[in-house]
Amino acid sequence: MQKRLILVAAALGLIVPAAGLGGCGSSIVRETEGQGGGGGEGGDSSSSTTTGPIWDAGKDAFDEYIDPGCPSTPAPIEDFQCDPFDQLNSGCFPGEGCFIFVSYPDEPCGQEVYGAFCAPAGSGVQGDPCGSNTGLWCAAGFACVVTGSGTQCVKLCPLSGNDDCPSGLVCEPIDVEGFGGCL
What we know:
Blueprint: H1 2-11, E1 28-31, E2 49-52, H2 61-64, E3 77-80, E4 96-103, E5 113-120, E6 142-147, E7 150-158, E8 171-173, E9 179-182
Parallel strand pairs: 3-5
Antiparallel strand pairs: 1-2, 4-5, 6-7, 7-9, 8-9
């Protein structure tokens, strides 16, 4: 079929992308009623050839898509062992900070786990690089976040009310539901 389309297109002087027959946005030649077997032989003057996209312009592709979806799942599991917004009274030992985390499920419809735990506090503050590849860790009250400027410490902030972010930064939602970071 592909060779025939190329032959018909060549006979009509049409340009057809060599690698694109049948792909998204590519053009094909479609014979219409009354046209001969290819190359225009035997057709009459009322026959025509149509070029254009391979989809039906009157049809929406999303009408045919069926989202497999996940069954109704309960709210994410929460595991807050300390209070990330109150580092002084968080329940962590001296020298530790209360750090937020998210644990993503292994299966597509599994539940996420949001929480906070006590861990030794680092020295990184707003904008400092952090993470296992740097060996540097954030201070209490900060979270190590992937940003447009690399992985860096950002100050935790509440998503509503006074965010207490440094001048020029705003509190934006981060991966842990209900928490923001000064970005």
